[in-house]
């Protein structure tokens, strides 16, 4: 049923010629109802290496960014810390207080200011959409982009661009992976200890799910990738079938260039979604032609390899 749903999304939102390619479910995880038992709203949350505490209601409040480690960054702008009701959610709620994000959305730390501003404009105009449009990380961005002021965009962009990204993803090549379930638009490990073949997937999970639920910006992740992916990805990044190479725009070490974002150390689930969204024509911004030329001939294995290699690099 889920695969059929994904195919219908492609038919509805992509060019017919491209609709036969279905976005991979593992990269576009949903948040099934009752997928996890929630604690009482009055429960108190703690995370490692922080003396602070928040209630569960606070860490689930779209207009509040839990700031567990305020020493890690400059003071949060109001729009990052609390947003502006009713429709501008706190940027730091989804992307965390100092911008590392998670597998379900984008890391903003260290992105060029002008790039962040342009992405907000693209969400607002409809130039940036998703291959699976009902995922909350995208629908929330569309809501925020239509309501946010230019001044708040500028404040958030200045703040996030000033931050230094840090490596928080460990990439492991393997044939077997922990069994997972979909939770909060990302994957998480079951507590059974069972494993299964990785197949043609990347399995990216928080190392400590409870810390990630608490929106701890220091949460780390493990990305399990098929064996040989990193080496293959390195070759593709440097020479993609004689089309534009990734390095020609994103830099030799994939750390970005001017207003072009870095790929090094980013979530491989996120990178995979962006490649598919460009390939399927759902991102129609100024980079569309170059990106579609670069990715049009990539198959599923190629995309996995590029995402794996990029995630393995130091940001």
Task: Describe it.
Residues 78-164, 228-314 form the Cytochrome c domain. This protein has 315 residues and is an alpha+beta fold. It folds into two domains: 2-33 and 167-312, Cytochrome Bc1 Complex, Chain D, domain 2 (Orthogonal Bundle), CATH 1.10.760; 44-161, Cytochrome c-like domain (Cytochrome Bc1 Complex, Chain D, domain 2, Orthogonal Bundle), CATH 1.10.760. Helix content is 37%, strand content 10%. It has 13 helices and nine strands. The chain has helices spanning 2-13, 56-59, 78-81, 91-95, 113-125, 136-147, 150-161, 209-213, 229-238, 246-250, 268-279, 288-295, 300-312, and strands spanning 44-45, 54-55, 169-173, 176-178, 180-183, 186-189, 195-197, 203-206, 221-225. Strands 3-9-8 form a three-stranded mixed beta sheet. It has a two-stranded antiparallel ribbon with strand order 1-2. A two-stranded antiparallel ribbon has the order 4-7. Helix 5 (113-125) packs across helix 7 (150-161).
How are the SSEs ordered, and which strands pair?
Blueprint: H1 2-13, E1 44-45, E2 54-55, H2 56-59, H3 78-81, H4 91-95, H5 113-125, H6 136-147, H7 150-161, E3 169-173, E4 176-178, E5 180-183, E6 186-189, E7 195-197, E8 203-206, H8 209-213, E9 221-225, H9 229-238, H10 246-250, H11 268-279, H12 288-295, H13 300-312
Parallel strand pairs: 3-9
Antiparallel strand pairs: 1-2, 4-7, 5-6, 8-9
Structural class by helix and strand composition:
alpha+beta
Helix coverage percent: 25-40%
Q: What Rg is obtained from the alpha carbons, in whole angstroms?
A: 19 Å
Summarize the helix and strand pattern as letters: HEEHHHHHHEEEEEEHEHHHHH
List the domain count as a whole number: 2
Main sheet: strand order: 3-9-8
CATH superfamily of the largest domain: Cytochrome c-like domain
Poorly predicted runs are: 1-20
Number of strands: 9
The CATH topology name of the largest domain reads: Cytochrome Bc1 Complex, Chain D, domain 2
What is the residue-averaged pLDDT? 90
Second-tier CATH architecture of the largest domain: Orthogonal Bundle
Q: What proportion strand?
A: 5-15%
Morphology? globular
């Amino acid at each position: 049923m889920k695969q059929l749903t994904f195919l219908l999304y492609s038919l509805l939102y992509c060019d017919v010629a491209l609709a036969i390619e279905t976005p991979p479910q593992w990269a576009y995880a949903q948040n099934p109802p009752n997928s996890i038992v929630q604690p009482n709203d009055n429960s108190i949350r703690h995370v490692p290496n922080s003396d602070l505490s928040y209630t569960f209601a606070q860490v689930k409040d779209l207009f509040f960014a839990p700031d567990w480690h305020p020493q890690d960054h400059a003071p949060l702008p109001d729009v990052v810390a609390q947003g502006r009701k009713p429709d501008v959610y706190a940027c730091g709620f989804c992307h965390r207080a100092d911008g590392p994000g998670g597998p379900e959305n984008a890391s903003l730390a260290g992105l060029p200011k002008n790039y962040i501003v342009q992405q907000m404009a693209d969400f607002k105009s409809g130039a940036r959409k998703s291959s699976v449009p009902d995922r909350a990380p995208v629908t929330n961005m569309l809501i925020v982009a239509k309501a946010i002021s230019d001044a708040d965009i500028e404040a958030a962009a200045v703040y996030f661009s000033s931050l230094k990204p840090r490596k928080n993803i460990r990439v492991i090549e393997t044939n077997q992976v922990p069994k997972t379930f979909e939770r909060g638009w990302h994957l998480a490990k079951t507590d059974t200890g069972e494993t299964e073949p990785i197949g043609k997937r990347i399995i990216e999970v928080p190392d400590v799910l409870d810390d990630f639920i608490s929106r701890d910006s220091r949460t780390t992740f493990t990305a399990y990738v098929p064996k040989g992916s990193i080496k293959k990805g390195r070759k593709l990044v440097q020479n993609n079938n004689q089309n534009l190479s990734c390095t020609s725009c994103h830099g030799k070490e994939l750390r970005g260039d001017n207003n072009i974002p870095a790929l090094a150390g980013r979530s491989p689930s996120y990178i995979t979604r962006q490649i598919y969204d460009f390939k399927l024509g759902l991102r129609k911004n100024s980079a569309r032609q170059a990106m579609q030329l670069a990715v049009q001939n990539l198959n599923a294995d190629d995309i996995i390899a590029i995402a794996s290699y990029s995630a393995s690099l130091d940001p």
